[in-house]
Design a protein that fits this description.
Chain lengths: ~270, ~260
């Protein structure tokens, strides 16, 4: 049959050098413009550095305090990553249970929604009372914040398997496990990643919220401590590092998605 | 030899609010290697009948038999094809075709050769390692056809498999299906709402009427094969069947039937 081979099959679009340059260049330029605006504002309004330091002062502070900042950066990164991993480990089985059981969907789901409505920062002081000043309450805070988006997106994804796929699976007499492993779970992965990307952005926030309330380490602690000393420049340096951490983590998850679920972008 | 027999089958869908009588007292015998099309307007229960044959649904009354055995669950020797290709986007073309072999735990090496032959038969040679989203709709349905044939089922059930394709691709695939059916003799039950497709493909056409679904008429198509919409399209036989089908499908429902549907 020659007509099928004659049908033009395009290579995956959007992978040319120009397209990549635009994808990197545009955000980079935006970033540079923002820093320029900040710098300009400090000059125009002549703010003293204990109110708003200049980008150069912040950079200098980062270089001077690099060992302190690095160790606190590691603490916060560790709390965020461990909390994120644990949230995935708890949320995905929960989502599977909810997707497969109508009873659980009716009982657990509304409870989850209600619990999620509680502002997490309200729980933070309680976590300190229960668990002390170590990494524990921060990791729990990260889990609490990340859990919900992962559960919702995964449960939605598992239930979103199209009818013809389920019928195909049934027509091959698959077991429930085969059906899940070969059809439903892979089908849900693009949805799972939507939740993961929301969650990873929240993970850093969770760790910082935990550190704000009671900590002896971490970038959140650095911000609180430098506020008390009116060391605005150090606080700014910590904030910049937190932003960097968030960006890197977010794009790491996006990269993982690109590798594991390449079909999700094209559909 | 009878491949599929449908004996006094009725099917009712029950929802919380209402009972929907989808099929009523269907009697149908389909011979071995026969190509049968089920035609009717939407709501006539043709897809339901197909799913009963596939063992995806159990009839409320009556029974469906394949090869003399009552169908109570999906069978290995019965394959399904849908309007949408139902290809798995994370698998390559050849991996999609091999899916039934893996799940049914058949000999991989032997079936790999068969999968490659089928892909060649449908003109997909050289596309084995592509992903479904790199293929056109027509090519995706060809892959789905290969997947349905890879474990050499004796019955192929097709639910409007070409309905989502453009007219030209549709005709091309209709021709191709006839050719493949010539090489791989199967019993085929093909659901469609296209008069053209029904006459072009069928040995026998089952015309169904809606609410509740019944067999309104059986038409035998005697025209030579392969049939295409080209020069052979206007053979007197195809014209006759097409016209009759047209009349049947556009006829007003008999008063008696309307009465019944109101009582439902």
């Amino acid at each position: 049959m020659s007509s099928a081979t004659a049908t033009q099959v395009d290579a995956a679009p959007g992978r040319s050098f120009g397209a990549i340059a635009v994808r990197v260049l545009l955000p980079a330029l935006t970033f540079v413009a923002l820093i320029g605006a900040w710098w300009l504002a400090t000059i125009v309004f002549d703010w003293p550095s204990y109110i708003v330091p200049t980008p150069l002062e912040v950079w200098q502070e980062m270089v001077d305090q690099r060992s302190i900042l690095a160790s606190n950066f590691k603490t916060t990164l560790w709390e965020a990553l461990l909390g994120f991993a644990l949230a995935i480990a708890i949320a995905i089985p929960c989502a599977v249970a909810i997707a497969y059981s109508r009873t659980l969907e009716l009982t657990v789901y509304p409870t989850l929604v209600a619990l999620n409505a509680i502002p997490k920062i309200a729980i933070a002081p309680l976590l300190v009372i229960w668990m002390g000043f170590g990494a524990g309450p921060k990791i729990v805070m990260v889990i609490l914040i990340c859990f919900f988006p992962i559960v919702i997106s995964t449960a939605t994804g598992i239930k979103a398997t199209p009818a013809e796929i389920t019928e195909l699976s049934r027509s091959l007499s698959t077991s429930t496990l085969q059906d899940f492993v070969r059809f439903r779970f892979p089908w849900s992965l693009p949805y799972v990643f939507v939740g993961l990307k929301v969650a990873i952005a929240l993970a850093v926030i969770g760790a910082v919220v935990g550190e704000f309330v009671g900590a002896t380490k971490g970038l959140g602690y650095v911000i609180v401590a430098s506020g008390q000393n009116a060391n605005t420049t150090l606080a700014f340096a910590a904030i910049v590092l937190l932003s960097l951490m968030s960006i890197v983590l977010y794009y790491a998850v996006a990269l993982l998605e690109h590798v594991l679920v390449p079909w999700s972008e094209e559909t | 030899m009878t491949a599929i027999s449908v004996k006094g089958v009725s099917h009712t869908f029950e929802t919380r609010r209402a009972k929907l009588r989808a099929l009523e007292e269907i009697e149908l015998e389909i011979g071995e290697n026969e190509f049968v099309t089920l035609v009717g307007r939407s709501g006539c229960g043709k897809s339901t009948l197909l799913r009963l044959m596939a063992g995806l649904l159990r009839p409320t009354a009556g029974r469906v038999e394949i090869g003399g055995h009552a169908v109570t669950r999906p069978r290995r020797d019965v394959s399904l094809m849908f309007q949408r290709s139902a290809l798995l986007p994370w698998r390559t073309v050849i991996e999609n075709v091999m899916l039934p072999v893996e799940i049914l735990r058949l000999d991989r090496r032997a079936h790999r050769t068969r999968a490659e032959q089928l892909l060649a038969l449908t003109g997909l040679e050289g596309f084995e390692d592509r992903r479904p989203n790199e293929l056109s709709g027509g090519m995706q349905q060809r892959v789905a056809l290969c997947r349905a044939l890879v474990h050499d089922p004796s019955v192929l059930l097709m639910d409007e498999p070409f309905a989502a394709l453009d007219a030209l691709t549709r005709e091309e695939l209709s021709l191709e299906l006839q050719r493949i059916w010539g090489e791989e003799r199967k019993t085929i039950v093909f659901v469609t709402h296209s008069i053209q497709e029904a006459t072009l493909l069928a040995d026998r056409i089952v015309v169904m009427s809606p609410r509740p679904g019944r067999v309104a008429r059986l038409l035998t198509v005697g025209a030579d094969r392969p049939r295409s919409l080209g020069i052979t399209a206007h053979s007197p036989e195809l014209d006759r069947v097409g016209a009759e089908l047209h009349e049947l499908l556009f006829a007003r429902e008999p008063a008696e039937l309307r009465e019944r549907s109101r009582d439902r």
